[in-house]
# Entry
Amino acid sequence: MKKIAIIGAGRVGESTAQFLAQSDLVRELALLDVREGAAAGAALDIQETAPLFGFDTRLTGSTDPGVIAGAELVVITAGLPRKPGMSRSDVLDKNVEILDSILVDVVREAPDSQILVVSNPVDVLTYRAWQKTGWDRSRVFGQAGVLDAARMATFVALETGLSTRDIHTLVLGGHGDAMVPMLRFSGINGLPLHYFLDQAAIDRIVERTRHGGAEILGLRQTSSAYDAPAAAVKAMVESILLDQRRVLPTVALLEGEYGASDAAMGVPCVLGTGGMERIVELDLNAEEQANFDSSLAGVQADIARLK
# Structure
C-alpha cells in the first residue's frame, strides 16, 4: 500500500497521522480537512519530526478533496465531537450529514479504497458508509473494539500491577455504554482474570471500560480522547498494511453472524490486505448473547433514524 488518506485533521486525525508516519509503513499520507490550513499545518508539523523519528513517509494536507486521489485506505475521523454530558448518539444527525459529504469525495477520488470509520457513533456511521457506497463489507469497517479492549487491559493492569504485555482482553457490541466486555475470553497470560482479581474489582473494570471515553471527556472538558483512539487505528492499519491477519475487534457489517443482520457491530475480525477478511463467530453463552442483543438493539435504533 502506497497511499493512505486521513479525513479530518483534528486531534484524532493528527495523532493518527503521527503514529502512522512514525511506523514508516506507507509512502504517502494525505490529510483532508474543510478548515483552511488545518490539514496542511498538521502535515507539515508531522513532516518536520521525520529526521527525529527516522521515517521517510511524505505528508500532504489540503482542503481540496483531490489530495486523497488514489488512496488505497481512507481513515475517516471527521465529525462533531462530543461535549460533556453528550452520548455518542447525540451527535448522530450532524455526523451523518458530514459523513455523507465525505463519501461523495471518497467514491470519486478513491473508488478502489477501503474505508476505516473512526467518527462517532462509529457503529451507525460504519453502516452508513456501507449503505451509501454499496461496497462489499470487506472494504468498509470501523474502529471501536481495539480501543475498548485496550482500555479494559489498561484498567486490569492498574488493578493488578501486572505487565500490560501479558493482558489480553476482548470487547464486543456497540461502542458505548452498552458495550460487552467479554470476561470469559479475557485473561493474563492465558489465565482467567479471577485468578488475580475478585469480583468487585472485575465489576469496577467492566464499568470503567464502558465509560472510558466519557471519563476522559469529563476530565478534559474541551476534548475527547485522541491518543488512544489513534493508537487503535494504527494497530488496525498495520495489520492491513503488513497482511498480519490479526484477529481484532472491529465494527463490521453483520450478515447473520451473532444472530444479527442489516447492522454494524463490534465483533472479532481477521484484518489483512483484503480488509475485513473474516468475522470470527464466538459461541456465546446465554448471558453474553443477551448483553450482545441489548447492545445491538441500541445500534439498530440509531440505524432506524437513517432510513
Q: What stands out?
A: The mean pLDDT is 94.
